[in-house]
Design a protein that fits this description.
Blueprint lengths: L1 H16 L16 H12 L15 H8 L1 E2 L2 E6 L6 E3 L10 E5 L21 E5 H7 L3 E2 L4 E5 L2 E7 L5 E3 L5 H14 L10 E2 L13 E2 L2 H10 L4 H14 L4 H4 L2 H7 L2 H4 L1 E4 L2 E6 L6 E5 L4 E7 L4 E5 L3 E3 L6 E9 L5 E9 L3
Parallel strand pairs: 6-9, 10-11
Antiparallel strand pairs: 1-2, 2-3, 4-5, 7-8, 8-9, 12-13, 13-14, 14-17, 15-16, 15-18, 18-19
Helix pairs in contact: 2-9, 5-6
Amino acid sequence: MKQFSLSLVFLFLGFVLFAQAPAGYYDAASGLKGRTLKTALYNIIKGQKTYPYTSNSSTDVWDILKETDRDTANADNVILLYSGRSVNAAQEYNSGKGWSREHVWAKSRGDFGTEPPAGTDVNNLRPADISVNSTRNNRWFDTCSVSVIDHGFVTGSYKSNTRWVWQPRKEVIGDVARMIFYMATRYEGQNGEPDLQIIDYLPEDKRSKEPLFAMLHTLLKWNAEDPVDNFERHRNDVVYTYQHNRNPFIDHPEYVQLIWGDPTVSGVIAHGQKTFLVYPNPVSAVLHFSGSKQSKKYLYSIRGKLLRSTESQQMQVSGLPAGIYLLLFKDKNTGKTLGRQKVIKVLR
């Protein structure tokens, strides 16, 4: 009992001692917003120290998760993300009787597997029930209503039987959102890494390996509804001691709106009840669109010259010089402008 009490004291002290980012860590992001802020954060958090997914001879992801997600009421246990259950940490997978390592941004969405850096980034990994994790699969995140019950236990998480989506228990919806925002900021397609993008629609092919994750508007809502708590802050600090990078959206949740509230980053164009998405932006080769298929897209130079038009869900722009362009969405029947978007063309 004495040993248990001391463990709780040290865990509590850990929450107190590790409460914020090191001085000056975010100086390069001060006063910025939109894509400029996102780029500054990428430069701050890129190049983290990596660890193997599994190792018998050195620190691996299992070892780090035992610290990041330790149960504050029982130092021998970890808390499972989607059910909140507390289980013995040391057992690890235990031939399917223990716990699993959940990639919150599903590793198939970008096809990065379990290889460093994206596949072993602990800012994207959480302990989870093996069976519940299997049910979640690689579903995108959105509001849904079918309760997930695991061997008679009500997990608090939800799925949909008609759409390929998942809703975590309410206590961690913000945690999940901020992890997704981290991944879309940390992985920008540089140095052979995936270029991860958050979208606001559900791809038709649920098996798609494109580096896209949905749904943006729901993640923005979850970030606001479930504020950062001490468990999440402490977790961020522990990850920092290993990887030497942090999740900026835990330290500064306001960065979420500063970045994804800017349509040049999110690519979301709202018009009445209709929403369009343009991605990627900046673009080097092909622009993709989602939203109303009753629209026609027109791409203009900044001098107003029409350069491209299409009714399809993509537009080839590889032959254009680098620069800034204007994209218009128009109703293909009436010609009425439904939305507009600045597009940045880059060379790669």
